[in-house]
Amino acid sequence: MKILVITQHIFPIQTPRSIRSTELVKELARRGHEVTVYAVLGKYDYSNFEYEYGIKVKNIPIHWELSPTCSDGPAKRNFIDKISGRLFRKFEFPLFEFYHRIPKIIATEIQYDALISIAVPHHIHWGCANAKKKYPEKFPKCWVADCGDPFMKNGKTKEHLPRYAKYERFFCEECDYITVPIENAKDAYYPEYRNKIRVIPQGFDFDLDAIGQKKVTNEVPTFAFAGMFYPDIRNPKLFLDYLCSINRDFRFYVYTRFDNLLVDYKDRLMGKLIIKNPVPRKDLIDIMSGMDFLVNISNVNSPNQLPSKLIDYGIAGRPIMDVNPQNPDKKQIDAFMNGDYSSALKIENLEDYHIRNVVSKFEELFNS
Asked: How many angstroms separate the CA atoms of 312 and 300, rounded?
């Protein structure tokens, strides 16, 4: 089967959607499918990757930004891009460019049996819908629109002008299936399109038998968080305030690219808070497997989203402390510090997240 995948990023950049895209194309190719992936590339040389997996990697040309974020890492935003982004953000700049670029890709490609478009950004889905309208004879026979976070009904709807709801309805109308990572995510899409929605979780390649087998021998309570913090939906302030009040030694490792919400606590915690730059995903899982427990700061007002890092936490095999950022449970924190993990968050049916099972679900959609 000839399969086309269109996404914003693939590896080596480490984001939930780049991981989703990379793992999908690798497993599809392993199964003998003829796979082409389009992404916003950079200077990274994909020739070895193409040779190893038999995958064609092609670039989505970006013209609206002088320094776009490419798959080989975040760009150093120049002054013009920063100002333009702030001035025109409500007009979906610069991501709206995908709406215009993707039809040109479809127009130049051969006929494919199936298309997987991957969001975020949802503007990629919009571009695919635009391509289907413009070039119906060249459009793939089956189109699966894969969604991470929702768009219009994402819990922060004010970020998007109401006029852009028509683009979400446009892609929902044109695609054959909409895939979301969890059952609750269905509620974030318009009711008239929910019959198209199928649940396919994030997929990873991992050894199920190795989970929880590593021996942990830390001298003081040692725990970690990996990911991003946000002032509005994932703010660690109250959790960190309580950690400052605990009169005992511990080590809290935070792997993040954005530490602006943490800087005030580095001195207050006197070496107990260790901030690290992100590391490759497999290395991170190995590091986390040596922790006493892991910390998840839950998203406020975002029940339709499941941070993909929770799957990595589950693969690491360590107890997970789920923290409500608006009301941290102090008794729970104390219990974890004392080695009582009875209230740990459970990641059920971890095998569902194995890439083999995930790709099988996509193949079922193609064959239906």
From this structure: 21
Rounded mean pLDDT, 272-288? 91
pLDDT, position 304:
47
Confidence of residue 212 (pLDDT cuts 50, 70, 90): low
The reply to whether 208-351 shares the fold of 2-200 is yes
Which burial class, exposed, middle or buried, applies to 42 when counting CB atoms under 10 A from its CB (0-12, 13-18, 19+)?
A: middle
**Which band of pLDDT confidence, cut at 50, 70 and 90, is reported for residue 37?**
very high
pTM value is 0.82
| CATH superfamily, with its number, for domain 2-200 | Glycogen Phosphorylase B; (3.40.50.2000)
Where in the chain are the domains? Answer: 2-200, 208-351
Q: Which overall architecture, per CATH, does domain 208-351 show?
A: 3-Layer(aba) Sandwich (3.40)
CB 125 within 8 A of CB 115: no
Weakest mean pLDDT among 137-146, 193-202, 306-315, 355-364 = 306-315
Q: If pLDDT is split at 50, 70 and 90, which confidence band does 209 have?
A: low
| 21-38 burial code (b ≥16 CB/10 A, e <16) | bbbbbbbbbeeebbbbbb
Per cent of the chain over pLDDT 90 is: 65
